[in-house]
Write a structure and sequence with these properties.
It is built from 8 helices and 6 strands, in the order E-H-H-H-H-H-E-H-E-H-E-H-E-E. It is α/β, with parallel strands linked by helices.
Length: 229
């Protein structure tokens, strides 16, 4: 069945892992504590802080304890939704101030533009919040790419290694599973997507790394076999 929609991961797929780990994460480590203190009474921050307390199971936790928990989650690279929400707010400020731009591989930009022109619907599914996803593509090295995408998904639909998450995404897309292609650099995520019936492709961008996989493999977006590469 021909591909009618593409769902893509970000980190290691459209975007260099180094940008996330050497730019975005350190920026949030530096900026998040003061950001939360300064904006604690803003409605969107206050709601996220309450969500943190809920995950902690500590509804009476003071702000400093919440911040301590957030920093522990960052150190462990935990995929906790309210953390991702707050990081997205911090990164929004950074993008708007021009402290950095979002890295997107040139091959990904060209392919996404070509697929969009062919009428293929494009979506993002990342553990980063939807807000953070939109910021990265909206302030990318190649300019504002958000017009290419029909929608975004984050951990609110479930974990990326759970087949149920991809079934939820399919319900939103309204497409047969076999007509949807999921792109990622993580085999466990691709396994979950395949279990839900999606087509898959493993991105292996590290030069010289030989990978044997039961998923189709591509070195970059120009090599993805399901889309005529």
């Amino acid at each position: 069945m021909s591909i009618r929609a593409v769902v893509t991961d970000i980190e290691g797929t459209t975007t260099d892992i180094a940008f996330v780990h050497e730019t975005l994460f350190p920026y949030s480590v530096r900026a998040l504590p003061d950001f939360v203190r300064k904006h604690a009474t803003d409605p969107e921050v206050a709601e996220a802080v309450e969500d943190v307390r809920g995950v902690m199971g500590a509804p009476e936790a003071d702000l400093e304890l919440v911040i301590t928990q957030l920093m522990e989650w960052i150190a462990r690279d935990e995929k906790v939704t309210p953390l991702k929400t707050l990081q997205g707010m911090v990164w929004r400020a950074g993008y708007r101030k021009g402290d950095f731009t979002g890295h997107v591989y040139a091959d990904a930009v060209l392919a996404l533009q070509a697929w969009h022109e062919r009428g293929i619907r494009l979506y993002v599914y990342s553990s980063g919040s939807v807000a953070a996803q939109k910021l990265l593509f909206g302030h990318s090295d190649a300019g504002d790419l958000t017009s290419l995408f029909d929608g975004y998904f984050d951990t609110r639909v479930g974990g990326k290694k759970e087949a149920a998450s991809y079934r939820t995404i399919l319900q939103t897309l309204g497409e047969p599973a076999a007509s949807v292609l999921f792109l990622s650099d993580v085999v466990a995520e691709l396994d979950a997507a395949a279990a839900a019936g999606l087509q898959t492709c493993l991105l292996v961008r590290e030069p010289g790394l030989e990978v044997k996989s039961h998923h189709p493999v591509a070195r970059d977006f120009s090599e993805i076999p399901q889309l005529g590469a």
